[in-house]
Amino acid sequence: MKQKFQQFMTGRYGVDQLSRLLLGISVVFCVLSLFSRWNLFYLLALALLGYTYYRMFSRNVSKRYAENQKFLNARYRLAVKRDQQKRQFAQRKEYRFYRCPGCRQKVRVPRGKGRISISCPKCRTEFIKKS
Ligand SMILES: [Zn+2]
Question: Which helix (H) or strand (E) holds 11?
Answer without folding.
Answer: none
